[in-house]
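Example 4.3 (complexes with small molecules)
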Amino acid sequence: MSMQWDPLLGFSALFGAVQALDCSPSAIQSALPSNANVNFAYPLQAGSTFEVPEGDTGYPTNPVELPALCAVSVQVESIGDSTYGFGLFLPEDWNGRFLAVGNGGVAGGVNWLDMGPGTRYGFATMSTDTGHNSSMIDGSWAYKQPEKIENWGHLAMHGSVVTAKGITAAYYGKDISFNYYAGCSTGGRQGLKEAERYPEDFDGIIAGAPAWWTSRLQTWTVKTALYNLPTTADYHIPPALFPVIAKEVLKQCDPQDGLIDTIISDPTGCNFRPEELLCGANSTDASCLTSPQISTLYKFYTDSVGGNQTFLFPHVNLGSENLWFIMFGAAPNPLGTEYPRYFLGLGPDWSPYDLNEDVQRLADLDPGDATVKYDLSAFHGKGGKILSYHGMSDALIPTGSLTYFYNQVHRTLKPRGIELDSFFRAFLVPGMGHCSGTFPSTNAPWYFAGPNQAPSLGPAVHGVPGFEDKDHDVLLAMMAWVEEGDAPERIVATKYVDETSHDAVMRQRPLCMYPKQAKYEGSGDVDDASSWECKLLY
Ligand SMILES: *[C@@H]1O[C@H](CO)[C@@H](O)[C@H](O)[C@H]1NC(C)=O
Ligand SMILES: *[C@@H]1O[C@H](CO)[C@@H](O)[C@H](O)[C@H]1NC(C)=O
Ligand SMILES: *[C@@H]1O[C@H](CO)[C@@H](O)[C@H](O)[C@H]1NC(C)=O
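Answer. The structure with 2-acetamido-2-deoxy-beta-D-glucopyranose bound is encoded below.
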């Protein structure tokens, strides 16, 4: 076995030969507390595919081309008669560290696919099934099941982390040096929840597009969809018109950020006039909006407030229109409707048209403690680091929900003498949708090896192909911050010409630490990250 020194990963190959336990069910069982049982444990040779067990609805895709590792599945008893399970990959060439990855939507299942890239860095990598078995958009498992909701809200992640760390240390016969977390969407929420409620679990947490405000996000999803329903209303904007709106928004907002480049970099700074889209007297084509439709557009771009003027939830950004079809179509996104039906217990017959302030008050009771609170002082106190990011063209979770959270944490901690820059940094990603990807006509740099991103480039990818360093790879950036105190000021995002071959780069651009924004310096190649600076533009 060769031994290669890497400044971040250490002697990555060194630990491979010294496993203290076999990769067998009985050996793994010996490392478990009495409330946990091994489902399976078996070795996989380098280059193997892990076959996702039959019936795993949440994440059915097999991770492929894995390094040599021990594949483990464990079931843990939780509150009442509920249980949760987790999967753990223990690579032969261990880097001495632990990584937990997150889930998506309301899915129940071990996210084996996202564990794959983690093992290629050398992490012992874990994912919890959150305590149930379902697809991303099916919340029926939660109906009258407060224990399952509590498992999904926080118990399953925390319990899986603690148990999996125990297995990891016993398996290698060595303490874990650093503990990391990486997740997006629900995974982002799980990471922030860990920081708030279980500050000892991780040293570094990457929380992408966090769905942190469970009690508000889902009701907002229903409420905003209703702005455009029923489809027979004169104010309804058919999804076929969303690209037309996107085009007009680009026309008005792209130049306002200082550079015409198909990327809206400063949506909150754009003064948009929807009336440019108004139909004339004899308009028959599908390229304009009526006056009632323009009123709907105003609602989409306005924060949601309660009847008493209480702020409820931020609006979608200008520049998110290309993704509206998943939110503002013929029915609300199921993630919105399932929440009142099953998490709030209103039943399968509950209609989105029944949304009212009573439903919001019920939601604000926050079943399962699934919403993240703002006091992250304990995580700060133990030296933990959080790196969060959000796509500016996300329509599933508005970008403003991350900046709202960031600013609320700031307002909570600064009066107590804690500067957020010291432990919590947020990066907004111009032109990126939900967790990954960019619209074909936008071509924004969006790839930085964030959670869920690698499979978009290819089944065997990890890190940023061609740019395997902390300036381009958010996980390496987090490791440098935690392990060397090298805090990331900016992260360079990459757009490849062809994302599946990823051999040529189309554009690179820095993502800046909120509230700074990337500013083109007026000279040099706009597609080269070095032509940009991160600045406060106010
Ligand atoms: C998970 O749910 C699917 C679909 O309902 C079912 O077919 C499968 O047997 C379940 N798997 C487990 C492990 O319970
Ligand atoms: C609209 O069409 C009518 C009938 O064809 C025509 O008389 C009128 O001039 C048109 N108006 C405009 C603004 O083009
Ligand atoms: C205002 O409305 C919000 C959302 O429905 C609710 O949480 C809050 O309690 C209300 N405040 C008052 C003073 O009624």
